[in-house]
């Protein structure tokens, strides 16, 4: 399930919420929580869009999961290797697209 919470734990949390908040305020609290989740989702989409615009060309297909450093470097290296050019009828030789000192 969500955040590695099983069905029994979820039911336990719901019962605890009913005890602490009360059944009369629970629907209002659930609606406010849904609004908060919707607002956070919108903010994350705005942040992702701004990040794409700031990084410039080549990052149009950027996803938040790509921001993991290992995933990011693997993707950029794969893209750089795909852009290798054939030089003088020799087997495919790749030109360096990334300065190795920066890695």
What does the model show?
- The chain folds into two domains: 1-57; 68-103, no CATH class.
- It is 57% helix and 0% strand.
- The protein contains three helices and no strands.
- The chain has helices spanning 7-21, 26-55, 69-82.
**Domains counted in the coordinates: how many?**
2
Please state the oligomeric state of the protein chains shown: single chain
Helix residue percentage: 55-70%
Inertia-based shape? elongated
Question: What about the largest sheet?
Answer: none
The radius of gyration over CA amounts to 24 Å
Order of helices and strands: HHH
Per DSSP, the total helix count is 3
Strand content: under 5%
Count of beta strands: 0
Supply the helix-strand structural class.
mainly alpha
Uncertain ranges: none
Keywords: Membrane, Protein transport, Translocation, Transmembrane, Transmembrane helix, Transport
Subcellular location: Membrane
InterPro entries: TatA/B/E
Membrane topology: Single-pass membrane protein
Question: What's the gist of this structure?
Answer:
With 103 residues, this protein is an all-alpha fold. It has helices at residues 7-21, 26-55, 69-82. It is found in: Membrane.
Topology:
Blueprint: H1 7-21, H2 26-55, H3 69-82
Descriptive key words:
103 residues, mainly alpha, 2 domains
